[in-house]
């Protein structure tokens, strides 16, 4: 019984995705058709259609899984230990110094190779 219920849900999800694509297509076509109208009105209409399409998409199985993933990501972000300002500045300074050192080394090696090639050629 669960298999037939799952198949029906999957078919209904496919219909929902078709509706989402249709709403997006209507938005794009409407934005093109009403190109002479105020940008504010067109933007508000596009935002409204995007919200409708997003709401419909969240009603599908994949949409619910995406929403759950976002909730879990938000919880994980709260667990992150962010560096202090001093740690951030020190790390940034180290990275910049290392990048400058490597750039100077590459410039020096390039100049040396160019000098050797110029000496060999003429």
Automatic annotation (TrEMBL):
PROSITE patterns: SECE_SEC61G. Its main location: membrane. GO terms for cellular component: plasma membrane. It comes from Halospina denitrificans. The gene is secE. Essential subunit of the Sec protein translocation channel SecYEG. Clamps together the 2 halves of SecY. May contact the channel plug during translocation. The lineage of its organism: Bacteria, Pseudomonadati, Pseudomonadota, Gammaproteobacteria, Halospina. This is Protein translocase subunit SecE. Keywords: Cell membrane, Membrane, Protein transport, Translocation, Transmembrane, Transmembrane helix, Transport. Component of the Sec protein translocase complex. Heterotrimer consisting of SecY, SecE and SecG subunits. The heterotrimers can form oligomers, although 1 heterotrimer is thought to be able to translocate proteins. Interacts with the ribosome. Interacts with SecDF, and other proteins may be involved. Interacts with SecA. One of its GO terms (molecular function) is protein transmembrane transporter activity.
């Amino acid at each position: 019984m669960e298999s037939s219920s799952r198949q029906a849900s999957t078919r209904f999800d496919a219909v929902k995705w078709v509706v989402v694509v249709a709403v997006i297509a209507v938005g794009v076509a409407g934005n093109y058709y009403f190109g002479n109208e105020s940008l504010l009105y067109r933007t508000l209409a596009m935002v409204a259609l995007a919200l409708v399409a997003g709401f419909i998409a969240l009603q599908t199985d994949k949409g619910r899984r995406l929403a759950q993933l976002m909730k879990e990501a938000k919880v994980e972000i709260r667990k992150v230990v962010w560096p202090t300002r001093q740690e951030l500045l020190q790390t940034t300074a180290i990275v910049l110094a290392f990048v400058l050192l490597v750039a100077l080394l590459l410039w020096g090696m390039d100049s040396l190779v160019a000098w050797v090639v110029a000496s060999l050629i003429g």
